[in-house]
Specification:
By secondary structure, this protein is an alpha+beta fold. It has two domains: about 5-85, no CATH class; about 95-205, no CATH class. Helices cover about 50% and strands about 15% of the residues. The chain has helices at about 90-115, 120-150, 160-185, 190-205, and strands spanning about 5, 45-55, 60-70, 80, 85. It has a five-stranded antiparallel β-sheet with strand order 1-2-3-4-5, with no helix packed on it. Strand 4 and strand 5 (about 85) form a beta hairpin. About 5% of the residues are buried.
């Protein structure tokens, strides 16, 4: 099983390689705040490295990062996957393709486990994956709300705590899911009754 771990020390001359014990957190870079992890004051080379997936022996399989180098013939910022650079507005298509590839691998693994008579373990993997995707979707909606507020700071001042952001994002996703469920259900009245019963249950818990 692969795992995501920090990049280990290296002596390669690749400007992306960093001798760090763990990926550094974004610092106080004035040019790329929240992205660049270079800590030296007045630096000209901007980067964010150390995000990688390794195999069971610790050898890197894939890494991603950010670079905007002053000595580059093309100084525009890039997001890279392995040795390939992507413009920021191109990267989503690349990351979506990687996710789809991993989903294909998950599907093959689960089908193989079922074929081997290990269905309960396959179901547990699927449950875990759903929980992870749900958490990721909530985080994405919260991020979407933050970006919208940054684009219109005078109209919607951002004062929510992290917990409030998560709650608002989860509620937004839940409303979308309910709308889809009602649109697809052949028994809309029955589903509305079930939703009302669930809301009443949560209301009772909140007032207890």
């Amino acid at each position: 099983m692969t795992s995501v771990i920090p990049e280990t020390s290296t002596t390669t001359s690749d400007p992306r390689a960093q001798s760090t014990d763990k990926p550094r957190q974004p610092g106080t870079c004035a040019d790329w705040p929240g992205i660049c992890t270079e800590a030296e004051s007045g630096h000209f080379d901007h980067s964010n490295h150390g995000h990688q997936v390794v195999d069971k022996s610790g050898v890197q399989l894939l890494d991603v990062g950010f670079a905007a180098l002053s000595n580059d013939s093309n100084p525009r910022p890039v997001i890279y996957i392995g040795s390939e650079d992507w413009a920021p507005d191109e990267f989503h298509a690349a990351s979506a393709a990687v996710r789809q590839l991993m989903d294909t691998g998950d599907d093959m693994a689960e089908r193989t486990m079922l074929r081997q008579g290990n269905g309960e373990a396959a179901l547990a993997r699927i449950d875990q994956k759903i929980k992870g995707e749900r958490t990721r979707m909530i985080a994405m909606v919260a991020h979407q709300r933050r970006v919208r507020i940054e684009l219109r700071p005078s109209r919607t001042p951002f004062t929510e705590s992290d917990t409030e952001q998560t709650a608002s994002a989860a509620f937004s996703l839940a409303c979308d899911a309910v709308g889809i469920a009602l649109a697809k259900s052949p028994d809309k009245a029955g589903m509305v009754r079930a939703l009302r019963a669930m809301v009443d249950l949560y209301a009772d818990e909140a007032s207890a």
